[in-house]
Structure formats: C-alpha cells, structure tokens
Amino acid sequence: MRFAFPSPAGLNVTLRTLAFSLLSGLSATSVAGAWPVLEHPQDARIEPIGDQLRLNGTPMRISRVLTALPVSALTTHYRKVLGKPLADAEAGGAQVLAQGRGDFFITITIQPQPEGGSEALVAVADSQAGHPALARPIGLALPANSTLISDLESIDGETASRQLVIANAHGLRTNLDHLSDSLAQRGLHPDGPPLAGREASLVQAFRGASGEARIVLVRREATTHAVLTLLSRRP
Questions:
Q1: What tens digit of pLDDT does each residue of 192-230 get?
Q2: What's the start-to-end Cα distance of the chain, in Å?
C-alpha cells in the first residue's frame, strides 16, 4: 500500500495560511450558521484540498483557486466578494485577506504563479466547533519535553493523513529512535535506512499493514524540529 505524501512547498503555504486564520479568528463574533460559500472568478479552476481537514482540532475547508487573472485583479475580486469589515495585508510576498463571519473565519492568500496568472488559497475555519477538540489526545508517544507546534489532520476520499510538527532539545538520533518505537507500536517499521541531509537533518520512511509514515528531523541552534506524517487507508 503506497500513498503520495503532500508537497512540502504546498503544505508550508497551507500551514502559514491556517495559522493566520486561527490566530486572527479569535476576535470573530460567535454566531451559528452554515459554512460560508464564496464566489470565485468565472475562469477559475477550483481544487479542494481534502474532504475533511482539522488544524489543532479546528475544522477547516480549503480550496486552491487557479486563474489567469493577475494578483491585483484577483485581490480586487475577493475584496468585493468579502465586503467589509476586512483585514488586508501583505505577508511573505503574498496578499492576505481575512474576515470573521460568525463562528467562521475566512482567509484568502493570493500570490502569482511562475507560468503566469495567480492562485488563491481559500481557507475557512469553524473556530467554534474546534473548541471541544483542543484537548484531544495525540495518540502517539512523543519524546519527553516536546512542544507540539502543529497538528494537521485531513481525510481525502479513502486516505486519512495526520501531520505533527514538534520541537525539543533532543538530538536527531534520540528523536528518531523514540518516534520509531512509537510507530512500531502501530505496526509501522523503517522502510530502509534513514537518509542524512547535507546539514543536520534526517529523513526516515516507514511502512506497515496499517499505512505509511515519514519523519523529517532538522536540528538548528540546539533545537530539533520533527515533522511526522502518517497516512492510512480508511476502513
């Protein structure tokens, strides 16, 4: 059983957008309602990212919108669609629009495409529904004194994925050994030797009857960051 792991570049953009949504959305007024539906440009190609998605317990709906429009025109379109009040800022070379709507918070990150045109990553977070899930168990034994930075869950058809980003002071091998033991309890075992990067980094793939996993470890300034991705087939 093999699954395709998400693109690191696309995942980084997604995480930045979702984090902005959750931090900014705390100020939104809480009024129950249906998920907001936005009008996209007529020529746009819409690519949903996962059927069900949770970041740190908060339900999300994310879509990638691709269009021939330049960034300026696409930004103008979504400014009109969202209306006011609206947060509007530049972040990391992208234009970011954000708006609270009742229990929901909308974030649109717009940036140019290398081949021309532009893309918008549209994220809608249901912050109210996420509150009961904030204290849910991780389901995996982490190394001692680890900080959980992000917990991203996604269900796309028959494939369920979960990505944990953690940080601690342990070395690369200590983290790899501990996380390998935790994955072994789930029936996942190393798929070949770990790959060492040019700098202080390690990558290890795992496989088993229950699915696949990958650990990416990077050490900088006495801190190790671990990205653990788990993929499994839904029953």
A1: 888 876 567 888 999 998 889 989 888 888 999 998 888
A2: 14
Q: What is the CA radius of gyration of the chain?
A: 19
Distance of CA 100 to the CA centre of its chain: 20
Tabulate helix, strand, coil % of the chain (nearest 5). Answer: 20, 45, 35
Q: CB atoms < 10 A from the CB of 32, how many?
A: 9
Structure token pair of residue 151: 């917990």
Contacts of 194 (CB under 8 A, 6+ apart): 176, 202, 203, 204
Distances (CA, A) of 27 to 30, 33, 56, 109, 212: 9, 17, 18, 19, 38
Tokens 């168990």, located at residue: 137
Whose CA is closest to 58, among 87, 15, 5? 15
Using CA atoms, how far apart are residues 182 and 140, in angstroms rounded to an integer?
6
Question: Which residues face 95 on adjacent strands?
Answer: 90, 110
| Amino acid at site 212 | E
Q: What pLDDT digit, counting tens, does each position of 115-157 carry?
A: 999 999 898 888 666 554 455 667 788 999 998 877 888 877 7
